[in-house]
Amino acid sequence: xxxxxxxxxxxxxxxxxxxxxxxxxxxxxxxxxxxxxxxxxxxxxxxxxxxxxxxxxxxxxxxxxxxxxxxxxxxxxxxxxxxxxxxxxxxxxxxxxxxxxxxxxxxxxxxxxxxxxxxxxxxxxxxxxxxxxxxxxxxxxxxxxxxxxxxx
Length: 152
Hints:
alpha+beta
């Protein structure tokens, strides 16, 4: 009976080591990509942000994170733009003052990709444009304007 217990204990230890090895490999894979829960969020009025040569910088380093703008009167979110290494990357969203989604588009390495969607204030779809079906990749345009970030 002691031999059977020892064998089961050995198998349990081997299973535990296998699970730990898988967890370590998973963590290594996660650390090589930008994790959204670790995203730095800055307001568009942050004085450490500036736009230069098509890139967004924070404290003289290409910015990685999300920048949000607010409506002045209500302080509600107007838009959210995500950046990777200074270029727009991820889902960009713009909202009506009511908080309802107005527009959404996707960027990859500073280029507009995928669908560009827009809704009326009553939440009915205004239009949809699929940039992935065209051979042309449209570069993103951003710039500074008095009072915060804007689209040109």
